[in-house]
Specification:
The chain has helices spanning about 25-55, 55-65, 70-94. The protein contains 3 helices and no strands. It is mainly α. The N and C termini lie far apart (about 95 Å).
Protein backbone atom coordinates (compact mmCIF):
# COMPACT_ATOMS: atom_id res chain seq x y z
CA UNK A 1 0.00 0.00 0.00
CA UNK A 2 1.17 3.54 -0.71
CA UNK A 3 0.63 6.74 1.24
CA UNK A 4 -1.75 9.06 -0.61
CA UNK A 5 0.06 12.12 0.68
CA UNK A 6 3.76 11.43 0.02
CA UNK A 7 3.59 8.25 -2.10
CA UNK A 8 5.87 6.21 0.15
CA UNK A 9 5.24 2.50 0.45
CA UNK A 10 3.76 1.68 3.86
CA UNK A 11 2.29 -1.43 5.45
CA UNK A 12 -1.42 -2.16 5.42
CA UNK A 13 -1.64 -1.92 9.21
CA UNK A 14 -0.21 1.62 9.44
CA UNK A 15 -2.76 4.21 10.51
CA UNK A 16 -0.30 7.11 10.23
CA UNK A 17 2.38 7.32 7.55
CA UNK A 18 5.82 7.01 9.23
CA UNK A 19 7.37 9.28 6.55
CA UNK A 20 5.02 12.26 6.36
CA UNK A 21 2.72 11.81 9.38
CA UNK A 22 -0.52 11.91 7.42
CA UNK A 23 -3.42 9.72 8.50
CA UNK A 24 -3.90 6.67 6.31
CA UNK A 25 -7.22 6.93 4.52
CA UNK A 26 -7.73 3.17 4.71
CA UNK A 27 -10.96 3.33 6.67
CA UNK A 28 -11.16 -0.45 7.04
CA UNK A 29 -8.12 -0.55 9.31
CA UNK A 30 -9.31 2.40 11.38
CA UNK A 31 -12.86 1.13 11.69
CA UNK A 32 -11.66 -2.36 12.66
CA UNK A 33 -9.52 -0.95 15.46
CA UNK A 34 -12.38 1.28 16.60
CA UNK A 35 -14.70 -1.73 16.64
CA UNK A 36 -12.22 -3.67 18.76
CA UNK A 37 -11.89 -0.76 21.20
CA UNK A 38 -15.68 -0.44 21.43
CA UNK A 39 -16.02 -4.16 22.14
CA UNK A 40 -13.35 -3.94 24.87
CA UNK A 41 -15.13 -0.98 26.49
CA UNK A 42 -18.47 -2.77 26.33
CA UNK A 43 -16.90 -5.79 28.03
CA UNK A 44 -15.48 -3.58 30.78
CA UNK A 45 -18.89 -1.99 31.34
CA UNK A 46 -20.49 -5.43 31.52
CA UNK A 47 -17.90 -6.52 34.09
CA UNK A 48 -18.57 -3.43 36.22
CA UNK A 49 -22.32 -4.01 36.03
CA UNK A 50 -21.81 -7.61 37.14
CA UNK A 51 -19.71 -6.49 40.11
CA UNK A 52 -22.38 -3.99 41.10
CA UNK A 53 -25.07 -6.67 40.97
CA UNK A 54 -23.03 -9.15 42.99
CA UNK A 55 -21.65 -6.93 45.76
CA UNK A 56 -23.72 -3.79 46.35
CA UNK A 57 -23.03 -3.82 50.09
CA UNK A 58 -19.27 -3.69 49.69
CA UNK A 59 -19.59 -0.72 47.34
CA UNK A 60 -21.83 1.06 49.85
CA UNK A 61 -19.31 0.40 52.62
CA UNK A 62 -16.50 1.83 50.50
CA UNK A 63 -18.62 4.89 49.73
CA UNK A 64 -19.31 5.42 53.43
CA UNK A 65 -15.61 5.31 54.23
CA UNK A 66 -14.85 8.01 51.70
CA UNK A 67 -17.50 10.40 53.05
CA UNK A 68 -16.65 13.41 55.17
CA UNK A 69 -15.80 12.41 58.71
CA UNK A 70 -16.01 15.36 61.13
CA UNK A 71 -14.12 13.64 63.95
CA UNK A 72 -10.93 14.16 61.95
CA UNK A 73 -11.29 17.89 62.60
CA UNK A 74 -13.01 17.78 65.98
CA UNK A 75 -10.46 15.56 67.74
CA UNK A 76 -7.44 17.87 67.20
CA UNK A 77 -9.47 20.91 68.30
CA UNK A 78 -10.55 19.16 71.50
CA UNK A 79 -6.96 18.09 72.12
CA UNK A 80 -5.72 21.68 71.71
CA UNK A 81 -8.40 23.05 74.05
CA UNK A 82 -7.62 20.46 76.72
CA UNK A 83 -3.90 21.13 76.37
CA UNK A 84 -4.48 24.90 76.72
CA UNK A 85 -6.71 24.41 79.80
CA UNK A 86 -4.19 22.06 81.41
CA UNK A 87 -1.38 24.50 80.64
CA UNK A 88 -3.32 27.38 82.21
CA UNK A 89 -4.01 25.30 85.31
CA UNK A 90 -0.34 24.40 85.66
CA UNK A 91 0.74 28.02 85.19
CA UNK A 92 -1.78 29.28 87.78
CA UNK A 93 -0.59 26.72 90.36
CA UNK A 94 2.99 28.01 90.21
Amino acid sequence: MYCQSCGSEIGQDYIICPYCGQINSNSDTISEKEDIEIQELEQKVANIEQIIKEEPRSIIKKARLSQFQPWIFIFPIIFMVLFFVLFMILVSIR
